[in-house]
Amino acid sequence: MNQTTNTVHQDVEYWLKNIVVGLGLCPFASLPLKENTIRITAFLGTDTEELLGFLEQELTTIEKSDTSQIETTLVAVPNCLHDFYEYNLYFDSIDRLIKINQWEGVFQVASFHPDYQFSGTEPSDRENLTNRSPYPMFHLLREDSLEAALKHFPNPEDIPERNIQCMEKLPEKQVNELFYYLFNKR
Description:
Protein name: DUF1415 domain-containing protein
Order of helices and strands: HHEHEHEEHHHH
Pfam family, one: DUF1415
Largest sheet: 4 strands, mixed
């Protein structure tokens, strides 16, 4: 299904504000959201080789910018990588891209997908909701910013467990409302 850049941006912004920040899933996202330093982009193509070029351009943009302009970038991919298995395999290409450009230790890429499933879980397990986004998505992070944020946050290793508990405590009605995009595919 083909999406417009505007629609994708709105959907990602909704997810970021209401789920990631609203539920406190990422304690580091609130400040960059408030400071408007989270870049949201959309790759509307269907070719994964072109997507790799797009990701390289986005990483270069981050590299050339100051954190006061772009702290981090979310790249939504509404028209390809719908299969979660293929999406996961695609990270091999991203890892090669980072290695070729000598960005190891500079950038990290986090993953979000509408069908995200942690290893050892069932598709319906609530904990998977912590990484379920409206579209396949790549979160391009500056490693130095991540390290700085982790220094000021007590027990960051507890974040995943806290997020799982948050998802398990949500009433079914709230899950259906917040994650409407998982149940009402456009």
